[in-house]
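Justification of computing resources. Each target in the renewal requires a structure prediction run like the one illustrated here; the chain below, 619 residues long, is used simply to show the kind of job we budget for.
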Amino acid sequence: MIDETRSPDPAEPLAHHRGSGGVKPLRGIELTGAQILIECWKKEGVEVVFGYPGATTIDIHHYLKESGPRFILTRHEQAAVHAAEGYARVTGKPGVALVTSGPGATNAVTGLAAANLDSIPVIVFSGQVARMMIGNDAFQEVDIVGVTRPITKHNYLVRDTESLARTVKEAFYVASSGRPGAVLVDLPKDVVSGRAEFKYPGRLKLRAYQPHLEPHPKQVAKAVELLKKAQRPVLYAGGGVIMSGASEPLLALAERLQIPVTNTLMGLGGFPGTHPLFLGMLGMHGLYQANMAVQECDLLIAVGARFDDWVTGKLDQFARKAKIIQIDLDPTSIHKRITTEVPLVADARLALASILESLGEAPDYEKKSRPAWLKTIAAWRAEGDAVMDYRKTDPAGCTGATCPVWNPKTKGCRTEPIKPQMVIDTLYQQTKDRDAIIATEVGQHQLWSAQYYLYDKPRRFLTSGGLAVMGFGLPAAMGAQIARPGALVVDIAGDGSILMNIQELVTIVEEKLPIKVIILNNGCLGMVRQSQQLFYGKCYADTMLGRSPDFVKLAEAFGAKGFRAERVEEVAPVIEKGLAAEGPVVMEFIVCQQALVYPMVPAGQDNYHMLPFAQAEAD
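Resulting structure tokens:
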């Protein structure tokens, strides 16, 4: 038990002052700021912290090693925050990262911005120079509170050790309540080394921050009336469905009223991908039937989605035949880009449950036009599937020597080229019964992973949506694997994006995480190159990667296993062998450079204008 007659020696780990119980309030004794921080983490149920040490956080690491949550030493601070985000996405609990001052804090900025844009609860604790040195251009001093103010939900500079515990409590509350987001807590070195009595607050009530969860009954009644009258409704579900745990009431509403459902990129898995009512993803690279259904519907029910520009295309032409119900927890998202007939500021799960309860006797859609609506959608689906069948399409125009499957002697492909869509499809066929978690980097492979892999459960698809961060997938997979050690976790990457944070293979090997990495190597930055091919006269400026490392040898150098497929007949065996192998594995696939992500809505166009489909509005 703790000897309450004296303060802990800062040279001793806090664990030395705790018995096996070690969970009683530490009242009546003084702790250092570092010890207080660790005790706060324990109170919040923090299981793991990702990060990188430095001079301003050394006191925290001193105590953390003996008495704190598990610490994962990443090889870069950006990766630490992405890993915390991956952990948060899979568990629904806040992810935590710890970084030092100066470059440690600035390296975390990208992760903070990415998590905040995607509404993921992440808290970054950054070291800072001592209070008396702040503003004096001290060694490794950066005003990280000022830097991150526009890209976080909230941030704090802790001004004294006495207020540290309350600040940490607030940070966890703000990050995880309402619309979740990223929070930064900046810790001056003398606050961390200072002493105070540990008093952890109970429930907080912040006067200026009170999220509204319950839907207003009058707005629910208006929504129900529109639902009963609609003949061509569509449910448009975003990441808010997953964050609020609203998948079940969403499914119940769709099935009860036979309403087709489309997901945003962030919402994939919020509605079963194999369900007959599922339309697929909508938007710039959404499926044909999804975009056509939204454009032609008479009622659009947006649930936890923010009408971002990738979804809407030309804004004044988006769903212009429809009345719109918008359910969103964040009042600032209402009417932000689209005017809605029925705004519902509420938690998505509570709002959908209230609508279901208020429906009463559902309209007899069998005698109305619902069968006709679903038949129309089925025709669009058939038209879209014909274009999406990669087995029946040939790449258009080869760029020659820049393509990894080009043979300069024959001036053609040296083998039948592997189509990247085939790799995703094959992976899906081999893992669809294993409840796999799929993480992605950013690029063409990300969108093929959204189109060709079907997610039947939430929190199984991890990708960077709003900020679209290359280098996100590998550390996010790391966080996911730590959160669910028994799960199959796969990171799908391109040869460009994987190099952004490939140093984390060291962390993965060190931590014995059995993550499988699939690299689609097309020798270029495929998403930008696609735009250059379609809209810039095939001027491939600065998108051809030239020499890439031997990813198999690189994997082996890091201590992982490596496999490669260069021929079509090698794809399935390599995936099977890679998935079966113990420990971390890198699988490289040499794929055709000419494959394009279709459909594609060109910038500035409405969602009727999907390449390569006919550019005409439906009758």
